[in-house]
Amino acid sequence: MRILTVVLLGLVACGGEEPAGSELSASEKALLGTWEIVNDSGIEGTVRLTFRADGTFELFIEGFGLSALTSGTYEVDGDRLRLDARKNTLVDEDGDEMEVTSEELVEGDLSGTYEIEGDTLYITFTEVGEDGKEAQVTAEYRRA
Questions:
Q1: Which of 15, 86, 112, 142 could join 125 via S-S bond, C-beta 3.0 to 4.6 A?
Q2: pLDDT tens string 69-93
């Protein structure tokens, strides 16, 4: 679960046009687009996160013999980022697809802080380990 939580908070993918009348802050505009997790993050496989101007996101994970697509909405408040996963679909190596609830895929709060430096996105959140202790975790992504 720890790896999936890191992945969910770290990936951002495909940007879109800004809706007419929408007023996004400069930091929200910088977040839009496709981001891929940096390989030295300890996660093997592909992880992409898409943030769109309409407030939706998609997270794609491929590795460990399966692929997962999570979609939902996100909110930005200053440097705070909250992801609200609405739909999770898993596909195994045989191509069998199953939908799972957010609770089955993600544990804990999907809130954290984010910072963008050039083409690098850092998302930091609090994770509760198996021992019950909280720790700050930072996931690093690069613009795809």
A1: 112
A2: 888 999 999 999 998 888 888 888 7
Cα separations (Å) of 114 from 12, 21, 31, 79?
Answer: 12, 25, 9, 6
If residue 29 lies in a helix (H) or strand (E), which one and from where to where?
A: helix 26-31
Q: Yes or no: say if 46 and 63 are a contact pair by the CB < 8 Å rule.
A: yes
The lowest-confidence range among 20-24, 51-55, 114-118 is 20-24
CA atoms within 13 A on the CB side of 41: 28
CA–CA separation, 61 vs 113, rounded Å?
21
Query: pLDDT tens digits for 114-133?
Result: 999 999 999 998 888 889 89
Counts for the chain of helices (H) and strands (E), in that order: 3, 9
Coil/strand/helix, residue 105:
helix
